[in-house]
Specification:
alpha+beta; Nucleoside Triphosphate Pyrophosphohydrolase; 2 domains; 4-stranded mixed beta sheet; 8 helices; 18 strands; about 30% strand
């Protein structure tokens, strides 16, 4: 495999979106007013959860109490449960966000919880980390957009210019302070890079807070005035002391925890260069072969396996990110290359 042959084999799951984000609609007071009676509304609590309805495919099995349930959830389809706007309020609440339109239906998002909605079962509520990979494209786009935008509103209640209180504007896509300064939803870019040797080995690393055996690819936030490619070189050098070449773009995915954008790259490193994990940031890093990575992928996601032994014999079992992360898409795609 040459470095230029590496491409994502599928779209990152939180990049799927069947929603039309039309800025003109947000700026049209008549549309905003008239859309509410026919709107569907996504209710999201402060933990980023919303009710999800599941449809089990023929032959699939799912038990809510099963510790491996999410690992088996690839056999399910999920849809976020929306409500009619007028069932919640006669007009859009001040803090509501107009997410967009799909099939002629306006979609909004509001903060709320199971206690706010009569007869809602709290056990049916799930967040993006647990359910995002199994939602349909409309649901994935709705929940990703809602969580990111509502998170921004929660953290932007005072003006960064003069400190006065702000209020929502433009159907939730801006905030205006008492002196007229406007602020818009923030997105913090971060790079995430799969480092390989141009042949058969890939580099994985583990954060100190993670359980033994849990690994992923390297990532870090972009600094002010820095290009994405420069960030790749800097972050990998800082985190594991490795020099990389042939940096190439793979894809991107929103990661609204609280408001990041993960920009995926791959790069080539030399396995013979000593690794120097950054103290306090990286507990350890290691190179594994493509066959070892395929075996780790076959074992399932890390979230479904954390209640099982982290070791088999004397070697740690490599547990990898769940399907909701772009890191998993990158690893799946690299594992699919070659023989």
């Amino acid at each position: 495999m040459s470095p230029g042959d590496f491409r994502l084999v599928e779209q990152p799951v939180l990049s799927r979106n069947a929603l039309d984000r039309d800025e003109a609609l947000r700026l049209d007071p008549e549309y905003v007013r008239d859309s509410w009676p026919k709107a569907r509304v996504l209710v999201v609590d402060e933990a980023g959860r919303t009710p999800v309805d599941w449809q089990v495919r023929p032959g699939g099995a799912f038990r809510e109490t099963d510790a491996a349930a999410w690992d088996a959830a690839a056999g399910r389809d999920g849809q976020v449960r929306t409500r009619a706007g007028t069932d919640l309020a006669p007009e859009p609440p001040a803090e509501a966000v107009l997410l967009g339109e799909a099939g002629g239906v306006p979609y909004w998002a509001v903060r709320g919880g199971p206690a706010w909605i009569a007869a809602d079962d709290p056990g049916e509520w799930a967040d993006l980390r647990a359910a995002g990979a199994f939602l349909d494209p409309l649901g994935a786009g709705l929940l990703t957009g809602a969580v990111a935008t509502l998170n921004w509103h929660d953290r932007a209640r005072f003006c960064a210019v003069d400190g006065t209180r702000t209020r929502p504007h433009n159907a939730g896509w801006a905030r205006v302070c008492e002196n007229g300064h406007e602020e818009y939803p923030r997105t913090d870019p971060a790079v995430i890079c799969l480092v390989h040797d141009g042949a058969d080995r890939v580099l994985l690393a583990r954060q100190p807070a993670w359980p033994v055996g849990r690994y992923s690819v390297l990532a870090g936030f972009v600094e002010s005035g820095e290009s994405l490619e420069a960030c790749v070189h800097r972050e990998i050098g800082e985190e594991v002391g490795l020099d990389v070449t042939d940096v190439g773009y793979l894809g991107s995915q929103a990661w609204p925890f609280p408001r990041s954008l993960m920009v995926g790259f791959h790069a080539v490193g030399d396995p013979e260069q000593p690794l120097r994990p950054a103290d306090g940031e990286i507990a350890d890093a290691l190179w594994i072969t493509r066959s070892q990575l395929r075996a780790a992928l076959a074992r399932g996601d890390w979230g479904a396996r954390e209640d099982r032994d982290a070791h088999e014999g004397t070697d740690p079992v490599v547990m990898l990110p769940g399907r909701v992360s772009i890191a998993r898409t990158m690893l799946d795609s690299w594992a699919a290359q070659g023989d």
